[in-house]
Amino acid sequence: MLGLAVPGSRVWLEPNDDPKRKLRYSWKLVELDDGELVGIDTGLPNRLVSRALANQGIAELRGYGSIRREVGYGRSSRVDFLLSEPGLPDAYVEVKNVHLSREQGLAEFPDSVTARGAKHLDELAGMVSLGHRGVMLYLVQRMDCTAFRLAADIDPAYARAFERARSAGVETLCYDTAISVSGIRLGSRLPVDPASQGGP
Question: 27 pLDDT exceeds 90?
Fold first, then answer.
């Protein structure tokens, strides 16, 4: 939530009457000083990607007829999506939510140390070594960014894991989103600049 939990910011909440939930509202959006909306819902990227995969809406992942979620793999991990199709290598796809931006036009991940995220990168590299595809998909829940980079200054270990994964053949995709107070949809692919070290 770095840079997004500023006191006095305008936010959008969604009522929730699920008795299993601790709070009656879910925080969905925050409005920045310049009027830009940023998506806060960390569960939304997987739902959005699931719909896009089902509609063949992600060009790099088209052609797969079987889409399964939360499939066990690696060392006690569960992959966000496992795509299968006869004649194609299985595609293991992990999705990460991105909402950090410390420099104009640049989306960054992670916004805090994430040992779990580094583990996912190593797990994907392991799948590539077995002849499958490993794909890390970053979904940017904001519309004011035109490129993506790693925030290596925030989590150097994650940046090292990213480099290991990239060297092993893990694919990196990044898409932005189109956001309004009434909905959100998958946007366009953004260029990835993993070599940048990050920092304001």
Answer: no
